[in-house]
Amino acid sequence: MTGRFDTQSSLLTAFGVLIALVAVVGTQVLGWEWGTGQLAPTVIGLLVAAIAVLVFVRRSS
């Protein structure tokens, strides 16, 4: 039985893999590091954290 949650889980998994890929490329290729004052990793981290909170709130209600 496929439903809304199966589709959402697949999308969230794909999103998570994409974010992990961005993190690996950012750290290994672009030299991104936390706490160095670089804007890109901070903005990406904040956006991902906000999305995680929204997903948690929607699923828990």
Summarize the structure.
The chain has 2 helices and no strands.
Distance from first to last alpha carbon: 22 Å
Which ranges are low-confidence, i.e. pLDDT below 50, for 5 or more consecutive residues? none
Main sheet summary: none
Helices and strands, in order, run as: HH
The count of helical stretches stands at 2
What does the average pLDDT come to?
82
The total count of strands amounts to 0
Strand content: under 5%
Q: Helix share of residues?
A: over 70%
Radius of gyration: 14 Å
What structural class should be given to the helix and strand makeup?
mainly alpha
| Mass-distribution shape | elongated
Secondary structure topology:
Blueprint: H1 4-28, H2 39-60
Structure write-up:
The protein is an all-alpha fold. It contains two helices and no strands. The radius of gyration is 14 Å and the shape is elongated. About 0% of the residues are buried.
Which short descriptors sum up this protein?
mainly alpha; single chain; 77% helix
